Amino acid sequence: MTDGGEVVYLGCYTAEADGRGTGIVAARRDPGTGALETLGTVAPTESPSFLARHPTQPVLYAVNERAQGAVSAWAIDADASLRPLGSWSTGGDSPCHLAVAPDGGHLFAANYGSGSVSVHPLDLAGVPGERTDLRVHDGHGADPDRQAGPHAHMVAPAPDGGSLLAVDLGTDTLYRYDLDAVGGRLLPREPFTRTRPGTGPRHLARHPDGRRCYLAGELDATVTAYSVEGGGTLRERGRVAASARHGLVQPSEIAVRPDGRFLYLANRGVGTISVFALDEEIPRYVTEVATGGTWPRHFALIGTHLYVADERADVVSVFVVDPAAGIPEPAGSVAVSSPTCVLGPLLSVAVANH
Q1: Which residues have CB under 8 Å from 326's CB, separation 6+?
Q2: Burial class (CB in 10 A: 0-12, 13-18, 19+), 179
Q3: Residue-wise DSSP of 227-295
Q4: 231 φ, ψ to 5°?
Q5: How does strand 51-53 pair with strand 164-168?
Q6: Where does the pLDDT of residue 131 fall: very low under 50, low under 70, confident under 90, or very high at 90 and above?
Q7: Measured between alpha carbons, how far is 75 from 125 in angstroms, rounded to an integer?
Q8: How far apart are CA 342 and CA 50, in angstroms?
Q9: Domain-by-domain residue ranges, the chain?
Q10: How far is it, in rounded angstroms, from Cα 320 to Cα 142?
Q11: CATH class for the region spanning 2-351
Q12: I need a surface site. Which of 45, 59, 276, 291 has the fewest CB within 10 A?
């Protein structure tokens, strides 16, 4: 056994989604160098394409991105292994994202295929119960191929316990819901935020000051800046191009550095991470760096390091982020089959050598 290791968990596409992974992979992280050492598959499960954790309990959650969508949960044991707690239907097709309410009382999931958001209550130990609500979106967008119907792509609870934002790529809409915690139901709170036609909103990132957020447009390759107004409504402040590269640009993950100084955006197709400074009202493009593959689906900022999961290159790349300039510098990589999500570290635990 090796004491004091930080453990990162990696979601992957499995054969059910034409991937090569076998479930959730654990990796030991060196906090100094950022290096990852994979420990193997710790939870064989169907296409755990996005992961989340409980804010106070040692519980990990995953969506199972399949036609009969589900969320699954595991208890995180002291040796970083995952002990199954069960799976529950989301009531929708191909869930691709999930999040836990800040108070740890509910789990939300976005069903991409059917354009809906599900709610599951969590008990005091973080174990989910059967679905208490399913909000189905309606409508379409400007792109006849990608926006023929609703496609919920992200659920984003407010850190302060305010409204939940549900990002729908298919309808060019950010839906806002209040949670009835007693009944476990989502109450629509208008006005909803309509993006420019054809944006294809995928993910959003909140600024730590609580007054700003930024939206990745998958279909029009943009970043839209919003101010958070009274009551949580969003006001567009402007937008910028996602990348300065030529070719296919299809943004995926977006995140603000914890100190609020820089915004990062993954661009599939051109295979880059764009860096934007947040010292002005609109994000200011600084540079972009190659990720070592063409399809960076997700990344995570952990300490001074950035970890990029490239779904098609079967690799998680490691970068050291310059604290002053905000620019990531390559620092190695590790082979992982069809990685789609990076989560962690969850705990400092003893991990076994493999």
Answers
A1: 257, 261, 262, 275, 277, 286
A2: buried
A3: EE-GGG-EEEEEEEES-SSSS-EEEEEEEE-TTSSEEEEEEEETTEEEEEE-SSSS-EEEEEEE-SSS-
A4: 80, 0
A5: unpaired
A6: very high
A7: 9
A8: 8
A9: 2-351
A10: 39
A11: mainly beta
A12: 45
How far is residue 54's CA from residue 47's CA, in Å, rounded to a whole number? 20
Both structure tokens of 72: 């699954």
Q: What is the pLDDT of residues 223-261, one digit of tens each?
A: 999 999 988 899 999 999 999 999 999 999 999 999 999
DSSP code string of 9-67: EEEE--GGGT----SEEEEEE-TTT--EEEEEEEE--S----EEE-SSSSEEEEEE-SS
Q: How far is Cα 186 from Cα 265, in angstroms, rounded to an integer? A: 29
- Torsion (CA) 22, 28, 30, 33 in degrees, nearest 10: -20
Total-model pTM: 0.95
| DSSP codes, 339-352 | EEEEE----EEEE-
The span from the CA of 37 to the CA of 351, in Å, is 11
Pairwise CA distance, residues 256 & 278, whole Å: 9
Measured distance CA(122)–CA(193) in Å, rounded: 29
Which residues are registered as beta bridge partners of 73?
61, 86
Question: pLDDT tens-digit profile of 267-284?
Answer: 999 999 999 999 999 999
Side-chain-side CA neighbours of residue 173 (13 Å):
21
Task: Evaluate whether 186 touches 178 at the Cβ level (below 8 Å).
Answer: yes
